[in-house]
Each structure stands twice: as C-alpha cells, then as structure tokens.
Amino acid sequence: MQSGSNLKNTSPLIPAVDATSNVLMIASSETDANIYYASHFLAPDPFIYLQAHGRSTLLMSDLEVDRARAQSKVDDVLPYSEYESRAKASGVTAPGLCDVLHIFLEEKKVGEWIVPANFPLRYGDTLRKLGHTLITKIEPFFEQRSIKTDAEVQSIREAQVSVEEALDSTLDLLRHAEIKDGFLILEGEKLTSESVRRHLDIALMEKECIAQHTIVSCGIDACDPHNEGSGPLRAHQSIIFDIFPRSNRSRYHSDMTRTVLKGKAPDKLKRLYDTVLEGQLLGIEGVRADKNGREIHQEIVACFEKKGYQTGLIDGRMQGFFHGTGHGIGLDIHEPPRISKTDHILQAGEVVTVEPGLYYPDIGAVRIEDMVLVEKEGCRNLTTYPKFLELE
Amino acid sequence: MQSGSNLKNTSPLIPAVDATSNVLMIASSETDANIYYASHFLAPDPFIYLQAHGRSTLLMSDLEVDRARAQSKVDDVLPYSEYESRAKASGVTAPGLCDVLHIFLEEKKVGEWIVPANFPLRYGDTLRKLGHTLITKIEPFFEQRSIKTDAEVQSIREAQVSVEEALDSTLDLLRHAEIKDGFLILEGEKLTSESVRRHLDIALMEKECIAQHTIVSCGIDACDPHNEGSGPLRAHQSIIFDIFPRSNRSRYHSDMTRTVLKGKAPDKLKRLYDTVLEGQLLGIEGVRADKNGREIHQEIVACFEKKGYQTGLIDGRMQGFFHGTGHGIGLDIHEPPRISKTDHILQAGEVVTVEPGLYYPDIGAVRIEDMVLVEKEGCRNLTTYPKFLELE
Fold this sequence. Notes:
By secondary structure, chain A is α+β, with helices and mostly antiparallel strands. Helix content of chain A is about 30%, strand content about 25%.
C-alpha cells in the first residue's frame, strides 16, 4: 500500500537515540510503534516509558503492573499509584499525570529528555512549565527500527507467507467463476469487492493476521489508489489486490499488491501492465545499500515517461504515476524510509516496498508491489508470489 | 474491557469545541478518532484538518485529494501540493509540513487555534515559532462525541448483535466438548484459549467486525484482567470472554464480558460469581442522567466489601476489584467518560460500560460487562446476552 505522507525525510537535528539516551514517551503501544518497540508491552491505554542512565522503566496503572512485569522487556516496572501518593504527599491535592511524572523525573536528575515528534503537546507544555527540558526528534525516532534484525525479517516474511496463501485461495474464487454479462458469477452469485475482500480477510484471520482496509478494487475504482473497492467485479477489467495485514503473533506487517484480470485483457491494458512490471523490476534492480532512493524513483518515472505515460492533472483528476515508489515496513505499515522524490540513502537491513502504479480512467489501473530487504550488493525479495495479469 | 487510563476527568479550561470554533488537527484518522469524527475520512497517513470561520477544510496529498472530495464530510478539500508550491514561491527551498501549513493558516487570520491535547509537540513548537497561537484542550475534545446520536447508538448496537452471535457460536464449542482429565476435548483436540479465540475472531470477521486482543482466559490467567489467555482451557474453572471489536462498516465498537465455566463450579466460585453479578446489576440500576459515576463505583465497591471481598495488594499482587467500573465507548474502545473513583456527572446520550470484576488467584476470576445508554430516568441496556456461570 502506497504512502501519502507529507513528512519529510530530513536529517534529525539531534544524535541517534540508543540505550544510553534519556528518552521519555507517553503513548498507547496499541497505536504507537515506538513505545511498543522500546517496551515490548501491549496495552490499550497510554502509559509512561522512560529511559535514563541506561535503564528503562514503565510507570503503570495498578491494572497493568503485574502483566507489564511479566510481559515487557524493560528493566523496571513501577506502580503509578505509588508516585501518585508521593505527589499528594508533596501537596498536590488532585495530581494529574504530569504532577505524578514530575516526581519521577525529578528523581532521575536528567538535563534533557528526548521525546518523539508526536509527543502530546499538552503534556509537553505542562512538563516544560514544571521545569523539564524536552527535545523532539522526528522519525525514525529509534534509528535501529529501520534496520531489521534477522528475527524481524523472519516475522515480516511469515506474515507475507500468510498473505500469499490467502491471495491464492481468493484468486481461486475468480478462477472458478464464470463470466456472464460481463460479471463474475460463482455459485449463482456475483462476486463483489466486498465478498472477495471478506474471503481474503477471513483467510488471513485464520492465519492470525489482522487485515484492515484490504483493497479489492476494479476498473475505475482502482484508478484512485486508496479506494478499497465496492460493488460487482467485472470481467476484462483490471482488479487491484493490495493486502497489508499485521501479524497478531509478531505485530509485524507485510504488504503486497497484485493486479489481475478475469477474461481477456484489452491491448492497451496489457501494455499498461507490462510497463508497470518493467518499472517495478527496474526499481527492484536498483535497490542496494548506499543508493539514493530518489534515483530509483526517478528511474521508474523516466521509464514510464519514455513509454508515453504522462503524470499530472488530466480532466480534473490525477492520472499516471502520482505516488511514491515505496516505503519502509515493520511494526508500522508505513515507516521510514520512503523511496520517493525525496533523498534517502538506502542502508543494508531496511525492508522497503517497491510499488509503482499507473492509473488512467480510460485504460485502467495497475500497481505491482513486492517487499525487499536492502543488502550490500542488491536486495532480497521477501515476496515470492508470481506476477501475471490474466487469470488462467 | 476495562480501562487502565490515568487521564483525569478534569473540566476543560476552554469552551466547548463546536462548529464555530477554530480548530486545527494533524493526525491519521486510522488511529485518531477526533480527526475521523470531524472529517469522516479514513486515511492511513497523517493529514491536516482545519476549522475556521465556520468552514471545515482538509489539506490532502495528491494521492488522497480525489478520494477525500468523494468521501469526507468537510466543506473543502484542498491539495497540499498547491500550498507547497506557494511556500516555495515565498522563498522556502524545501518546505516542511509546518512551512506549508503556515501559508494556509496565515490566510485564515485566526487569533487562536484550539488543538487536541495529543497534538504533536514538534508541530506545536514549530507553528508557535512561526507566530501561531495554539491552545490545547483535553478529552473530550468534541463534547458532542460523548453524547451519541440515534445513528451512533444503532451502530454500537449492530456491532453488539455481532458480538452476541459470535459468542453464542463459540460457546457451542465448549458445550459440545467433553471433559477428560480436566481438559475440554472437542473432536479429539484440547480446546485452548488460542483456538477458541480464533473461532470467535473469525466469526466476528464474517460479520465485518475486527476483533483484536479478544480475551479468552481461564483460571489463574484471568486473575490478570488484561491477560488475553493462553494454553488449554480447563473444566470447573472460570473462563472470561471479553470481546470488544470495531465494526468495519461503522467504525463503532461494542464491548461485552461474560464469565462461564464448563463442568461444575466450586461453591466459592459460585459465590464470587453471584457477588459480581449483584454488583453489576446494582451498577446498572444506578446509571441515569445527573448521577455521579463515582457514587455508582463506590456502591459496587461497598457491595463487594460487605460480602467480605477485600481489594488490595495480597501476597505481592493486586486482588479484589482493582479497576474502574466502566468507560465510554464509541469510535474509541475507551473514551470519556469513566465510571470510577473520579467524579463524573452522567449525561443522557452517553454510552458506558458497567463491568465490575473480582479476581482472587485461589478462587478464580469473574467479570461481567454490559453496555448501557444513559437516559433521563435510568438507562437502556444495549446488551441482551444472558448471564450464567455454568454452561448447560
């Protein structure tokens, strides 16, 4: 799935964050990958993570303190209620989160705290008023998160195996369908984006992968890259499958797009498909450590333009190749780096997608996406699903 | 599912946010319910929402601009790239998000912007440096979000119907299982937390509800309220089912907990169950507009204490009733208000859970949870699933 982020890959203004940094985070690990990465503890409500003098600490509510001790990977789990009592003893009658945290931060005698760019503004204002210095750092907050360990690559690949198995069983529905009046009919019913997506999402759930917003979009719908698709699928038109679940076991994502068609592809669509495939293979060929992602993106753009596929506003809507080439993937579906018009020097160990697409309402839409692991001399493709337009 | 939040229900320091307020948000609507509530537009990457002089606007990337125009409920959708060009024309060579937003904000000539408490600190710092005034407001950011419309209540109830159907088909697995050596055996296999949870989650997915972290926990596991449960289920021990999916259609949640047992309940556990049920019914009876949630919570605490069930640290772990009585529910699984030791005057239209529990490792764990709609003279129970301990 392509990224529509406007966040820039500018260099951080402060040093890399590592185990020796003084770090403060307040977030729910269910929605914030940085606090999950640092704590390996999953909780639905926001909690406090702190790293100081080489030790990591969670400040947890009574409800979570025992589970955090058993499940998290931090050095210390301390009860929030204890510091709440101390805040009250210090004279605050109804201490809020920052009053409680203040007691805790004072103990640490740290000059500056590094916080993520998305640290909540209200807590930031209050803690600064209480005399603490907070310095924000943009993504990647933990540089290390971009460089996947073998275990992380394995988690991504495991999720990808589930995606490939689920897509295969789903395409069988299309394979077994008959074409009647331009629709795909299986067991007397029209196949729709909704019914096919439900089949895919259930197949993924059976493999403990949670899929949300899976794209099964056909024809004109697919010309809007984030349109999830709705209504009956049609023969002889391209159908985009963009599948990007999170593994419930590991919390890592995978991400793959295939474009297929039931029936016979019009020549113009065949040529569009071949061009996107050529661009995608060119992109994969370009991925290696020390290469600038911007160059990879531009090579694909140039390839498309050379074949006569222009990008821009045509008849009041964006057409052509109007998204980036790829994005990092891991605990978040979209994470740094981006492969786009912005500079980024690729590093060994990054896992990125390569997913160019071309979208023309009068021809159709094609996007093809693999995930690759950046290596010193090239890359390893973590996606093994075949690429074809017409279903056999 | 009970809330472990430390956020206080203190009164906002600024007036209610409504359609006439000047509001700025930057977030992904996939993870931030406020920006979804205001825009009704779902996107995986952060985008900009602005409300000024009575008009609402989205500033969207080229990738999303067409879809946002078709799907969102805002007055205007403007292309980010247009303001990016204007920022460049004004002399910024590589404009970041705040440089682009600055051009846009200047146009609006607004004195103060109200932003959510979780507005990203880095953007806050940068916009203030550029001369803009940002005032944070704590939850509920939109007061109106707490007071559910009929359509919202209907969405919650629809999700709840799916939960009840899914639990019913799941309990059939337990009903049909045989007890052998204390385990539950179905078709030659031991039923486990994992296998039963998978059945439940798939049944929910078939109804387009996305369940994550569904709790199916047995015996000692269940004494830790957020433990999801693992390993074989056991006969004659309580099993907690806490089910809180999001509807894929409406994005609203439902939340229900039932405690059941296969086999014969020991007397001590039966008495624990009856006590929790008594407390829960007392809680539901107490819910009505203008009642203080703290009183409801205290009534349940007193009921448990009167029966001899103490709460606190026993043998180094929290035992008894050590979480709140309930929480608001809607686009977020946990949202204001809380029914807990903190003051909150209930208002008609709020949808809250009532979910006391008692947890003693030497007896077992029991939690029972319904969702109710606060009304002028009482409440309407949105949960219709029966309550029983022993499976027939």
